[in-house]
Structures are given as C-alpha cells and as structure tokens.
Amino acid sequence: MLVAMILVPTVRLATPADARAIAELSREAIEHGLGWTWTRDRVLKSIHDRSTNVAVADEQGRVLGFGIMKYGDEKAHLSLLGVEAIHRKRGIGSLLLAWLEECAVVAGNDRIGLEARRDNESALAFYAQLGYRPVGSVAGYYHGLMDAVRLEKKLGTDPAP
Ligand SMILES: CC(C)(COP(=O)(O)OP(=O)(O)OC[C@H]1O[C@@H](n2cnc3c(N)ncnc32)[C@H](O)[C@@H]1OP(=O)(O)O)[C@@H](O)C(=O)NCCC(=O)NCCS
C-alpha cells in the first residue's frame, strides 16, 4: 500500500547560514524589476539585529519562505515576506506571518504595518484575508518606480468575516 506523506514546513528563526537563500528568494519573489536591495549582507544585518526577527519556513532543511519583522515599542513593521513560487497557496505565508505576529504580541506591540506594491494583487488579497487594512499609499516608494499601499493590522482583533 502506498502511503502519501504530507510535509508541513516548520517555522524557525533564521541563522546566518540561511542568509544567501533568503536574499535570493527576495530577489526572485519580491524585488523583481526593482533592483536587488536585500542582499545577503543586508539580510545578515537583520538576523543579527536584536529588535528584528528573521523567520524561515523550513522543509527538510530547505528554505521555502521567509519573513522579516522589526519590533518597536508599540508598532511592528513587516519588512519582507516571500514564499517560493512553486510552494505558494499551501498556507506557508500564513504560517510565517502568524509566527511573526505572535512575537509582536509577546513584544507588547499593538499593531503591525507594512507596505506592498500597488500592482501586487495576490499579496493585497493575502493581507486582506489576514486582517490587514489599507491606511494610505506612498508614491514612488519602490525606487521611484512603483507606488506602495500602506497596510495595518491591529493585534488582538480577528479578521473581519
Ligand atoms: C503573498 C505571499 C507571501 C502569500 O504566501 P502563500 O504561502 O501563497 O499564502 P497562503 O497560502 O498562506 O494564503 C493564505 C490566503 O491568502 C489569500 N491568497 C494567497 N495568495 C493569493 C493569490 N495569489 N490570489 C488571491 N488570494 C491569495 C487566499 O485567501 C489564501 O487562502 P486560501 O488558499 O485558503 O484561498 C506569496 O504569494 C508570495 O511570496 N508572493 C510574492 C512575494 C510577495 O508579494 N510578498 C508580499 C509583499 S512583501
């Protein structure tokens, strides 16, 4: 009898050894067409930053997705979130974001802000589903080439049905 095994990735803190995979995923999944700013060195800086968590979704030692969140006194900021294209729509983005949000609650933050490309319909749908609401926009946020939508979620409130 053939038994199918369903693998669920584990979310864990990134180590310096993950920095290259994260940077390459950022270039492919997020920064396409905008120039590469989240290089390995910049990711490494975030990994070592005490007020930032870099989380990865790890499946048998392979990084399938990652998220970078910086925590403040009251508000956290999601700097980046990306899942490898062939592993999207498996719940990995939600898993990563829930893990980072939990840390924000523990850190005493009451809301999370982020920016998303105005043309990124799938990300906007993803964040809306998880309770993020538009609070403004920033013209030319991405190297003057692309506008951003600013989104925010109040922690401790469930997404509207
Ligand atoms: C946005 C992103 C992180 C979502 O990750 P993911 O693992 O595919 O998301 P999930 O599987 O957890 O999706 C959760 C819900 O979000 C919504 N959603 C996700 N992708 C969607 C899409 N392409 N279109 C519409 N809704 C979508 C759905 O409601 C989905 O629930 P469902 O699968 O039950 O319908 C991923 O698409 C990605 O890496 N995109 C490229 C990088 C990027 O845009 N990052 C965000 C801006 S920094």
What would you note in describing this structure?
With 161 residues, the chain is an alpha+beta fold. It has one domain (11-154): Aminopeptidase (3-Layer(aba) Sandwich), CATH 3.40.630.30. 27% of the residues lie in helices and 35% in strands. The protein has 4 helices and 7 strands, in the order βααβββαβαββ. The protein has helices spanning 19-29, 40-48, 92-106, 121-129; strands spanning 10-13, 52-59, 62-70, 75-83, 111-117, 133-142, 146-154. Strands 1-2-3-4-5-7-6 form a 7-stranded mixed sheet, sandwiched between helices. Strand 3 (62-70) and strand 4 form a beta hairpin. It is globular and about 55 Å long. The structure holds coenzyme A. Residues 29-30, 80-83, 88-94, 116, 120, 122-123, 125-126, 129 line the site of coenzyme A (COA).
Derived structural class: alpha+beta
Q: What's the total number of strands?
A: 7
Oligomer: single chain
Number of domains: 1
Count, helices:
4
Determine and state the CATH class. Alpha Beta
Strand content bin: 25-35%
- Tell me about the largest β-sheet: 7 strands, mixed
Q: How much helix, percentage-wise, in residues?
A: 25-40%
Overall morphology = globular
- Sequence of strands across the biggest β-sheet: 1-2-3-4-5-7-6
Gyration radius, rounded = 16 Å
Uncertain runs: none
Which ligands, by name, code or SMILES, are bound? coenzyme A
